[in-house]
Design goal:
15 helices, 3-stranded parallel sheet, Rossmann fold
């Protein structure tokens, strides 16, 4: 649809400088015909978007991208921002950063700055808006909204380092017990702070039932489940034969448990392709058998080709949602996954195989059983499950929910002066609503 205003200025002119002051069942997955109807007659609103940090395009940033396209006049608030590392839709936004942006080498060091991130998020001053939407896995949900303004948090997980990721974080200090004890003390403080600042959120949205349960356990709050988007227009099946090699895609870090896939395929003598990079690569290559290939990071087009031709995607880690398995399903690939976390909500024995033992032996037994059963898999069903999580479905569900939050007669009074509409673009005259 053509807009009735000039194109947005370039990213450089629009951006501000650094801070100025259960198993998958068809009934669960969203279907277009089951979407909540778009609520009409919602006043145009001024929106602030908040994200933990912006250093590259991952799953969280793809969610933010949809909101940036819907609300191009919004301001994005974040702790740090690496220019040129994001999609054009995000780069074109006005982006405000925290004082952390001014620290030399911050893009290498920022994960070590966790103890001071609560102070940095306080510096993100938000004013003159009618809606705050944070996308949070760390501190973004702790931003302070203006008084009386609803704050919707799209929660990837409660603060990972303070809750379910605490032990993994501390394992990095296992050879330094004094520092490990100090880090444990800091994480305890962060957990209390994280629970307390949940009060600043008026509405929680969870990315999966797994995270919905976690929000309830950590914060004592209810939430709505709206799964993240998958680009099913790009990830599509192809008329090609599947090969013999199994596939792993993802960062080579401990919690991904790529070593389970490497050891299982070595034990069974199966070929394996590993796409990804990270600190675990040297160790994994040392573990691997002669039929394993490590390709490092690859462009999306190469990953798509491997989804289309692999025997199956292996997913041995426990994830909050798991976008990679959905991308594979979109390409018609079988998925063999650990039956924990968000992936268990979309993968079952109709589109692959789930297993329960979180060890390489458990994965090896799952592979042998799946092969012995004739590698059962319904690629058409796999594709339909992925399509139920498309970007258009995500956009429709999330914008309908925001409209529900802001609807007159709902949780709050009508918003003040129009600025941005829930259908995206600049505000139109009130008579056109």
């Amino acid at each position: 649809m053509t807009r009735n205003h000039p194109p947005s200025p370039s990213p450089r002119t629009r951006r501000t400088a650094a801070h100025d002051g259960n198993q998958g069942r068809e009934s669960h997955l969203p279907q277009p015909s089951q979407l909540a109807p778009r609520i009409r007659n919602v006043p145009f609103v001024r929106v602030a978007l908040v994200h933990d940090w912006l250093t590259g395009m991952r799953g969280g940033e793809k969610c933010l991208e949809v909101l940036c396209e819907a609300f191009p006049e919004a301001t994005v608030h974040t702790l740090i921002y690496r220019e040129g590392s994001l999609s054009p839709a995000i780069e074109a936004m006005t982006i405000k950063t925290s004082p952390l942006q001014r620290i030399p080498g911050v893009f290498r060091l920022y994960r070590h700055l966790l103890p001071i991130m609560p102070l940095a998020i306080r510096a993100l001053a938000i004013q003159d808006v009618d809606l705050v939407v944070s996308l949070s896995h760390c501190v973004a949900k702790a931003v302070r909204p203006p008084a009386g303004v609803p704050h919707v948090c799209y929660c990837f997980t409660p603060m990972r380092y303070a809750w379910q990721g605490r032990e993994a974080y501390l394992d990095g200090w296992r050879k330094r017990p004094v520092r490990r004890a100090a880090a444990g003390f800091v994480l305890d403080l962060l957990r209390r702070w994280d629970r307390a600042t949940a009060k600043r959120v008026s509405h929680f949205v969870a990315i999966s039932r797994t995270i919905q349960e976690r929000i309830a356990a950590c914060y004592g709050r209810e939430s709505r489940v709206i799964e993240p988007p998958v680009d099913v227009d790009f990830y599509t099946p192809a008329a090609v034969e599947r090969g013999e090699a199994y596939l792993v895609v993802g960062a080579l870090v401990p919690y991904k448990k790529v070593d389970h896939a490497v050891e299982a395929c070595k034990r069974l003598g199966r070929p394996l392709v590993v796409i990804g990079a990270g600190p675990e690569r040297d160790r994994l290559e040392a573990l691997a058998g002669p039929r394993a290939r490590f390709l490092g990071w690859q462009p999306d087009e190469v990953i798509r080709d491997h989804y289309r031709t692999c025997r199956a995607l292996l997913f041995p880690g426990e994830e909050d949602f798991g976008i990679v398995p959905i991308e594979a399903l979109a390409c018609g690939a079988p998925v063999i996954a650990l039956g924990r976390g968000g992936v268990a909500e979309t993968v079952d024995d109709q589109v692959g195989r789930l297993y329960s033992e979180a060890r390489s032996e458990g994965l090896a037994r799952a592979l042998e059983g799946w092969e012995r059963d004739g590698r059962p898999h319904d690629p058409g069903l796999a594709r339909r499950r992925a399509e139920a999580l498309s970007r258009s479905v995500f956009r429709e569900r999330l914008l309908a929910y925001l409209a529900e939050v802001l609807a007159p007669g709902g949780d709050r009074a009508p918003a003040p002066r129009p600025h941005v509409g829930l259908t995206g673009g600049r505000a139109r005259e009130a008579r056109s609503v």
